[in-house]
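During the reporting period the student researcher (J.K.) took over the structure-prediction task from the postdoctoral fellow and processed the backlog of single-chain submissions. One of the processed entries is reproduced below for the supervisory committee.
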Amino acid sequence: MSEHEAPVLASVRNRVGHLTLNRPAGLNALTLPMVRLLHRHLWAWELDPDIVAVVIRGAGEKAFCAGGDIRMLYESHAAGDNQHELFLEEEYALDEYLHGYAKPVLALMDGFVLGGGMGLAQSASLRVITERTRMGMPEVGIGFFPDVGGSYFLPRLPGELGVYLGVTGHHVRAADALYAGLADYCLPSERLAELDRALDSLNWSYAPRENLHQLLAGLATERIPGSELKAYRQVIDEIFSLPNLQEIRTALQSDSRPDVQDWAEETIRLLNKNSPLAMAVTLELLRCGRRLNLADCFDLELHLDRQWFDKGDLMEGIRALIIDKDKNPRWNPPNLEELQDEQVKAFFAGFHTRRTSAIAAERPVTQ
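J.K. obtained the following structure tokens:
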């Protein structure tokens, strides 16, 4: 394999380590070798006193990273091997490591940023998007739940925005990403090359993080008008704070405000399309995650992972959307009306945090 064919490209220029996810034909979806390469370079650069910052980006113009290699997850579990388990464990370990990285990490996101891409991006200390960015946690649409730290960063968004995004799987554009706090700056795509030139010539001081902020403040913007999330923030906070999915859907169906109806109808469409079990577990997961620290959130996601391939809807979701492509997943149960509280609660049973305190088994389930 030549240097340019490697799944992760690594270089150092002007004391900055540059990492490029290099699977543009696959929208830079993460594989286990990519996770290991990223971890190896990041670890070496953290120890290198000559490296002052790291930039992570995706090859091509279509995606920073559109998630993990979900076909591999399906094939690994179907074959009875452990590659899917290793991938998730090591991916989460990489994301957790990045959250506490000792040097500033700039995630430069052009195009799709979904699932596993969000795990990388939201663990970076500086998150830069372009007007082409489309960002989201769409896992419920394939019968999964927001992982890669989603149980930590989604419920910490303002109000109920994170619950709304996690339960519906809705993608957001640049204005919404800035408004929700999923990005720090928006840089016009035609200025990406200019940013690279500026990084290559930057005179680093004793405060590299401040150097980067000053550079981006001169090139990019922190707010863009036209945020849909801002326009619907009040109704999102009202409805997605309700106790369970049944009440959420009922509230959407009964909302007669003219300025809300189109949004409510689209939200109902998403709820009716997604896996009922995945949405219910997501709602519980995000509400648990609000009161857990980062490490415990990753542990809880792994706790769910270890059960989900056999008891959840992920295998069926991948079959319908990726393997057979019939786009007709047979969710179990097929609708919210048939979902039992006990089915959701069972996934959380037996989980203990790293502080050895258990999530209360009798806490009301947010189905």
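The committee noted the following: Residues 3-136+170-219 form a domain with the 2-enoyl-CoA Hydratase; Chain A, domain 1 fold (CATH 3.90.226.10).
J.K. will present the remaining backlog at the next meeting.
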